[in-house]
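My current task is to audit a protein record that another person submitted. Please read both lines and tell me whether the tokens look consistent with the sequence. Do not assume that whoever made the record got everything right. I have pasted the whole thing underneath without changing anything:

===
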Amino acid sequence: MNVSVYSDKVSGNRVEIKNVAGAKNVERAVEYEYRRHISLLSEGKIPEFETRRYDAEKDITTTLRKKEDEPDYRFFQDPDLPAFQISNARISKAHKELKEVPYDVKKRFCN
């Protein structure tokens, strides 16, 4: 998976994360990497292009290898897929159409 943080003022580089097993660890790896990027950007540093691995026991990511530039990722935009914007109204509509998730069902029946 890839993580990058950007705003109107600053843009970080994409970091690829490998060796993540299980949905919970995906969430934890992304959260850790997000916090790491925010910390670096707040110090005026830009995260490097690199591939990192997730260590579930320590709940951290560590460098596997550095990337020189974008082509090292073999990431290419698909010319057949146009860019698009999703409006807040469309997101709200989709949210209202979602069925109750298992966590909410459990919460409803256990309380």
In short: The CA atoms of residues 3 and 35 lie 11 Å apart. The mean pLDDT is 84. The radius of gyration is 18 Å.
